[in-house]
Amino acid sequence: MPRPEPKTITFTIDGREVQAPENTILVDAAKLGDVEIPVFCYEPKLGAPVGACRMCLVEIEGIPKLQTGCSTPVKDGMVVHTQTDRVREAQAAVVEFLLINHPLDCPVCDKGGECPLQDISFGWGGGRSRFIEPKRHFQKPLELSPLIAIDRERCILCYRCVRFSQEVSEDYQLILHERGAQTFVGTFDGHPYVAPFSGNIIELCPVGALTSRPYRFRARPWDIEGSGSVCGLCPSQCNVTFTVRDDRVLRVLARQNDGVDDGWLCDRGRFAYQAIHVDERITEPLLRDGGTLRPVSWERALDEAASLLKKAGSRVGALAGGGTTNEEGFLLQRLVREVAGSEHLDAAGIDPVDAWTLLDPALQASMQDVEYAHTVLVVGTEPVDDMPILDLRIRKGVRRNRVKLAVATPRPSSLDANAALSLRYAPGGEGAFVAALTAAVYGGDIEAPAAAADASVDEIRALAELLRTGGDGAPGDVVIVWGTSMLAADGGAVAPALLKLASGLNLSGREGGGLLAVPAAANERGLLEAGFAPGMAPGFGETDGEGEAHAVAGIAAALRAGDLTALYLLHDDPLVTRADTHGWDHALEKTTAVIAHSQFLTAGLLEHANVVFPAESYAEKEGTITHPDGRVQRLRPAIGRQGSVRAEWWVLTELAKRLGTDFGVLTGAMASQQLFAAVPFYNGLTLDTIGGKGVRWPADAALAAAYPAAPEARRDAVYAEAAEPNGALRLGTFRSIWVGADVEASPALKFLAPRQMVEMAPSDAQRLGVRHGEKVLVGGDGASVEAIVALRDAALPGSVFLQTGITTNAANVLDGPLVEIRKA
Amino acid sequence: MSWTPGDDAIHVVRPPAPGAAGGTYRVFAETLRGLKTTFARVAEGVHTIQYPEQKVPVYPRFRGRHRLHKFEDTGLEKCVGCSLCAAACPADCIRVVAAENTPEHRVSAGERYAAVYEINLSRCIFCGYCEVACPFDAITMGNDYEMSDYQRSDLIFTKEMLLAEPVERTPLRAEGE
């Protein structure tokens, strides 16, 4: 749906003439005239108002009864009074009424001091209660989930949490039990409320009924300081406020930025801060000495790392993980390219030329476009796992703006229920599927690629029809949300086909439509733009390097062959994050020098690292990261670095100095400045202009014009055919939202750390004679993992799905396109 | 050098110049009158208080070192760790870190208790706002005023020290004294 055109009207409130956009809700419009109307249940983020709490009663001339300000849109010439005796009396009565069952245990309550009920009782209440009967009692405090405590006595029944569960995250778990005065919030049968976004209800609750268990009794509002930054745990890059007390992060709150997160946070972003302050974290440099890693001084570690790098000469490879900032990526590529003279560095594992063509600002859709487009196509990604906040944004578009959603994924998607059309294709058939879809939009042979992707031709035709006509003959803005893991799977074919599809749908240069990439790692886009990609200088420029530049798989092969002897790992551990664990294990075994920056001693580092530098957590970092829609955002340090951790830019600069090159970086801001100067489309950005909300460079005409013209898309791309099962099963992989060292290290989130499940279609299970919940061995050639069978009705027969990245039994060890299932 | 205004400006009243009798009276009689007080006190006896062996009793509303209290019947701490005293404190000398009571380990009557309760007496200005802020009468200003120490760090009083009876009690002035 197109964004509504705002029309300005004039209305009068408390004798003041105020201009406001037409149909703004009165409570919001009143703020434009500096009038505050108290509210409890009204929350614009939750969608349509319900008028449940009656706190916002106002008098409107011409209407005999008092009206709720939260559900009345302003009209031209409306005359509103908020300070008359009638209104005051009503407000005081509502406060008295709301406090009838409220225990007033503010000294014990965690909300005390930041509680809207306190504020409104103080500001608008009568200050006296006539209620002498006993209040209603519940057992308390109860665990609504291991993350949330519920105190039903404090609840004022504003329905915010229930509305969130029913209408925003759509997990439909929270409900209201009983009726009238007996009403209380809960889940069916008292099951724990465990959902990817459950923590948001803590922030929504206007009283202390829902409180965070990890934050329980940790601090009071006057003990703490808020520190705005950006969450660096996944590509959503939600804006957050860290709550800091005594130099420790105690809580993470959402910081609303409509261009990024819409004011929501996932539970990982909300609770994984705990990993900052755990004992497992590395807080001093470690050096391998006699087989084990021992703590050493910074001088010694730096000297050792420098001499290892010197010995390796140009035979150095480098990998960067998702938590790397643009500046760190930029400095490490300088270290590898300028100092060592090597070209073998990679982060995303995708062809940078493909990325270059697909990240073109003319094709770029923004996060808000997803909400207002006519049609959204989700292809090759599961938003709730890969970029959780995008999932909420898509649901919001479908629910409130009637966006038509189409989902095309190998694995059954959580968005299927909201989709106008959802279809499956075989894992490994990404290129073939996009080629078939392109053919269906453009005209051409659909049958062959559809067969190669094991997808239904009719469904692909229907999808093409939906994209072309918007379903009702009114073609409009189309946003294609695509996973960059498709490029890694079948890069050669996916990128040109996607580009052709985009031009077939007229997405280039179109406002309100375009492509939106869902990266596999948090700052994948920023690292590509900062030049941390094989054979691609900062800002997609030419590099001076000669010869072939190895990508991830190439680096592993070169290490195994002995062509590379040193590996620099910036927040990465190939044994955990990359495919082909056995190959990497072998490669790391052969590597003479492994230098790593990490917060935790993961499997690969524990076994193979020679020097481990302690890495900063995202709450300690300074620098910029780039959102998948091109928004450059700024990380600001919220707390001091723990232990003897030092900034990564400092470590990289010191190493370069020891190898004879001065980067000229004395502060974190100087690294940012160098980056902005080196990347043409970041030119002119400063940390000040980026500020708290970030700058979307593709939306800035001058910056977008500086984007170097991408080369012509390959026309000779040939898609790969998805493997024919022939009795075996195709292997598809996915990464759960709960995968990561931070989740494993956070005491509160440990219970969510996923176990290996093999998702399969019921027909396959029947054929193999396995049941839901049964333990099986899933194996390819040589390796196998133990998993529990999970049947998915919507799964494509002939394919199974396993998780990658988990601590035990990760699917990373399997490399074949086909696997077999045996009973364990 | 005295300045004499003109007669037309101000009417100046001057005392009579002291004569011999007046002068003598001034020198001796007034002095003796003062000495009367002195000798009267001498007759009363010694008034020096031999501090620290002897102590001045303080008034009931005297604001001395803080005390934390327990319920006499249950032995539970009155403090629930709400931190309102820390919020009220103008000298920012109170630090409270709360924790949750469990059925096995119950410290206070409410859900939460103060795991850490520290008052930095080297910063405290003894204004008594903490006592006013406390919703549970858990903290009161006591009578003790002897708090000097050799180490600044010893002036940070912990919860245990504040809950304990003072080692030496300061005498309290009796009613009407």
From TrEMBL, chain A:
This is NADH-quinone oxidoreductase. Binds 1 [2Fe-2S] cluster per subunit. NCBIfam families: NuoG. Signal peptide: none annotated. Belongs to the complex I 75 kDa subunit family. PROSITE patterns: 2FE2S_FER_2, 4FE4S_HC3, 4FE4S_MOW_BIS_MGD, COMPLEX1_75K_2, COMPLEX1_75K_3. It catalyses: a quinone + NADH + 5 H(+)(in) = a quinol + NAD(+) + 4 H(+)(out).
UniProtKB/TrEMBL annotation, chain B:
Its cofactor is [4Fe-4S] cluster. GO terms for molecular function: oxidoreductase activity. It is a peripheral membrane protein. Its main location: membrane. It comes from the Bacteria. Pfam families: Fer4_7. Residues 70-99, 115-144 form the 4Fe-4S ferredoxin-type domain. SUPFAM superfamilies: 4Fe-4S ferredoxins (SSF54862). Binds 2 [4Fe-4S] clusters per subunit. The keyword Translocase applies. [4Fe-4S] cluster 1 binds at residues 79, 82, 85, 134. It is found in: Cell membrane. The keyword Lipid metabolism does not apply. It catalyses: a quinone + NADH + 5 H(+)(in) = a quinol + NAD(+) + 4 H(+)(out). NCBIfam families: NuoI, PRK05888.1-3. PANTHER family: NADH DEHYDROGENASE [UBIQUINONE] IRON-SULFUR PROTEIN 8, MITOCHONDRIAL, NADH DEHYDROGENASE UBIQUINONE IRON-SULFUR PROTEIN 8, MITOCHONDRIAL. HAMAP family: NDH1_NuoI. NDH-1 shuttles electrons from NADH, via FMN and iron-sulfur (Fe-S) centers, to quinones in the respiratory chain. The immediate electron acceptor for the enzyme in this species is believed to be ubiquinone. Couples the redox reaction to proton translocation (for every two electrons transferred, four hydrogen ions are translocated across the cytoplasmic membrane), and thus conserves the redox energy in a proton gradient. This is NADH-quinone oxidoreductase subunit I.
